Amino acid sequence: MQRSDARSSLTLRYRQVGATYKSLRTKLKQNEEAITSGRTKRRYKGLDKPPKYVSRTYTLNYQRDYSFVKDQKVSVITLDGRIKVSYQGYSKHLEMIQSGVAKIGAAKLWYSKPTKTYYLLVSMEVEVPDLTPTDINRIVGVDVGQRYIAVAADTQNKSQFFSGKEVRHKASGYVKARKSLQRQGTRSATRKLVALSGRERRFIADTNHCIAKQVVTPSTLIGLENLTHIRERTRPKKTGKKASKKQRRANSNKARWSFAELHGFIDYKAVLSGSLAVNMDAHYTSQACPCCGHTSQENRPNKGLSFVCQQCGYTLHADLVGARNIALRVLLSRQDWESTGRFSAVPDASSDETKGERRSRYSQLRWTIDAISTLNAAESFQDKAE
Ligand SMILES: [Zn+2]
To answer: At CA 265, angle to CA 264 and CA 269, rounded to 5?
Structure first.
């Protein structure tokens, strides 16, 4: 028994190494293509030296490599056989596991260098609740960007702004410090660098957690924009040769915010509170007038803080427009959900509707308090009729 366990953990380790080499090889191939097409002259050096794992992590499968045993203890396989150690955890999550709401998944054995401690990070699996349109009583659209990390707007005219100014300033400080340490290149600088990058990552994660917590409310359908082109959209305006030296330096010190992480947090927090987060097609959400549908770049005069519709004159805080348009699209998919009994969460090419059809339907959406209250009235009327 013991031997087979040891073998399986060895296989796991092979797999980890194999995966590392696979991704290195992919990078090499991409680099070769880039050189042939003249996009770069730099040779990829990732395979010159054997890969080194900075953090010692190791994946363990539940019931095979680790399991929970009596007296608040966990049994973990090691190369010298099984060991039993006591554990602690976030009480709310432990309760969920005990009550059977959450299932236990694979775990990672992780070593924290500063505290010289091994941690067992256990993943929880929570099933997405089977929601029906009537379970939803609030609809929110979330837009992410530079000036505000996130703006959330619901269809009842409420909005939340999460300013990016301060947190970005702090995050940029980390980037600057990292660059200076990288330039030094000494051993102690490398050590500091590892600690710093951990702090930077935790700071971003912490901020994302706070935002997600405030965005997610119970029984809500939350629309998130598809992040495929987010890097382009949130890229600083002046880059390359056109930018001044000062501008370029400012750009390079700008922290990259992890919007995907924010979406991930919103997603799982939504599931935990009986809500649902969905990916929406965010095409033109920042240019379309929520009031008359007129879509143009001109609707953002001088790329300023205000959105001013060039056709109907509708004026709104520019960062709110995107969130409202997403909320409108979520409203539409909720109506579809009600009429078809099927929710199409991710708009993709394989759906029944083509992209063009869907976008032409989006362009018909209008933000009028009348329309939304009529919709709500129609729903409550329907409720009464049933
Ligand atoms: Zn308009």
So the answer is: 120
